[in-house]
Structure prediction request, 867 residues.
Amino acid sequence: MKIMWKALFTVTLLSVSAASSAENSNLTIENCHLGEIRSQVKCGKLVVPENYQQHDGAKISINFAVLPAIDNSEYKTPLMFLAGGPGQAAVELATGLNRIFSEVRKTRDIILVDQRGTGESSALSCDLEDEESVYAVIASEINEQDVKNCIAQFKGDISQFNSENAIRDFDEVRKALGHKKVNIYGGSYGTRAGLVYMRMFPESLDTAVLDSVGPIEVPIGMFGQSGARSFRLLLENCQKSESCHQAFPNLAQEFQAVKARLAKEPVTIDIQHPRLGTPSKFVLDEVKFTGNLRFQLYGVEGRSMVPLVIHQAYLGNYQPLIGLIARTEGEQIVYTGLLFNIVCNEDIPRVSEQMRQADADNNFDGKTSHLAWDVICPLFPSYRPSQEFYQSVTANVPTLILSGDLDPVTPPSNGDYSAKTLPNSHHIVVKNASHTVAMSTCASDIINEFLTSRDPKALDESCLDDVPEESFMTSVNGIQ
Amino acid sequence: MNQFKALLLKEYKEAFRDKRALMVALMMAFMAPIMIVVMSKIIIEKAVDQPPVYIKFTGSEYAPKLIEHFKKENLLSFADVPEKDKAIWDERNIVINIPDSYAKDMADGKPIKVFLQADFNDKAVGPPVRRINGAVRDFSLSIGYKRLLLRGVDVRLLNPVKLVEQDTAKPDATFILISMLMGVYMMMAAFMSGLSVAIDSSAGERERNVLEMLLCQPVSTLKIVLAKLCSASTISFIGVLLVIVLTTISVGFVDLTKVGATFSLDIVKASTLLMLLLPICFFASACQLFLAFQTKSFKEAQSTVNMIIAIPAFVPFALMMMDDRPQWLDWTPIAGQSLIIEDIFKGVEVNWLAMLATSGVTIAVTVALVLAVANKLKSEKVVMALS
Prediction:
């Protein structure tokens, strides 16, 4: 069942694609090993109220980690990471973040907090044994009862697992660790969390970095137009590349042809399970096809294979697509319970029928990206944030905004939204990058510079010019 | 007590009178920080820097993606070599031959051989060759992974077992090289700084006939020896103090974070080190006095005593080589201290019991040596260098 959710969720992901304490009896902290990081780091737990209005009520334990600065001879404000999703667990991303923010970590602590509902902070996930093959499952087979059963397993009052309470937790962790201020880096949904942080506790923040922005004004979940834009750019770039154009001269038409074929009748073929090597079934319909392609658009690595995958599918060979699905099969990417809990309550209710139709009016995947919300949101227990929650954020915190031009979910126009209302901000659009720019380009170095200078408008951005243009695989053997 | 004071004053006067000798003796302390900084700078540069490598390509037009990948790794074409480096890279003459069947073989999925020609005996060619090797391996792997993936295979199958290293050193563990050098240098400083004073106040005084005069006075030989010991160990302690202070300052000029390391000596660590090394200073001077009095002339004393300064350099090294060292080594002078110094730098909790034990043993040996020397001075054999 969990896998079924995933089948849905590859269609709708908004996430990061990368991978000394004060006196407080609620806080425990100890040395530990995390992920694949060689050196010891610090792991901690902080007990906070489940409902901040009822301090004597139920408590939940928030899990966090500190990657201590390598040179801590002088105190520099640490960097707190806000994970994407919603539903990614920050601590689980430690290995990748340790590498990406290695420049920052030389002089600053990096603080990773599992947002409530993820990781080891009362995760909203289900223990289900009947995991079906991601290859055989298609979205239209989602069983409502299974989803209901899963929701019934969640513990606690899940209406408290909202964005604002998550920020209260983050700020509690900051306080408990004895930091007067922190810098924040938010990627994807993490930018939404970051914006809420900037509004609720501006005095706690030294600087903010918002990478691939999900502004409060733009509801999360309507990805039709942005996906189509990202795909259109891919087609254009393929045309511009001589070898790609030569290999796939009719790519756009081939894509539509495959889509139409699958819409008419799903394909079922016998395959060897890509990991187990045992005979399995592979079922593919239109939704699954475009959903998986959309997932590849998040990063340049995946994008480089998309033209080939489309062309091969057009020729009737689905093996390349199966390989792409296998890349993430069986891996926990987000805690889907929290994903739906937040998006279904904070974003989807604000989507008007008109917006929905405008978004569905595209020739990439139509309204496929709405499907998950349509099926699952009505089943979720509801809460509603106050109207103030949706106001634009105007905090005067130095803010660096990053966007990747190729991004399928948070296009540069999203960054413009936030840049407009944040007085001390600067928006950098990286032409040849996709979702979460810092994870794949030298933007992580620019962030490091920004944390020190705290001036978003005077940064050396020249290294971004060297981000190479998209290039594509033109055969299964990978020639130029 | 007055007598001892007068004796000590005399020893200090003599020790500090010869400024040049003193400077030479304390050279050790000044050399250490410089050596440490220079060595770590070189090592860090080697570890972090990816200097450009210039390669003479043939057939580069057949493999544009490979060449692009090389460029990312700062492995450049010989055509780009700056004028001033031209001669060097021409001399190194690293050649890569790409076959003209490259594109076709790639499309057919056939293995492609790219040839690297260089003088593998030339030491300067070693690092570039290693980098070229790495770059080709990465390039090859990334294509290989994609080839499997596009055939519908889960590429994670290629890594059935992954080794994840978990270092149990404390998060604030220091740069190992500096810690090692510091440990050795501090011991050396303890032994070397007081050396000239010890020799001069023993064998030297004897040759200048000052010793005879001293012994004629109505003071106990023990007081005479103690005064000499105090004077020599003071200098040796100054040496140790200088090493610690100057190194801490000079290490600040090295950007250790480049290699993901840090080095800091806080006041607690520094005082623990000083406490640990104080008995060693006395021990070293006592050894030197003892040996110097055994010899017949100043010159002989110099050569004999010089031999023992190898001990503090040798012992830590020997300890490093030993995989299973016997327990008693933990308590012997020098060996015991160097093990504890290692712990201090590693950030491991210092074993205070072991520290007390080694210090006790060291002091006991020192006392024995002092008593032996005092006893010896009662015999005129020593005074007249007749033994």
Remarks:
- The beta strands of chain B are 53-58, 75-77, 95-97, 115-117.
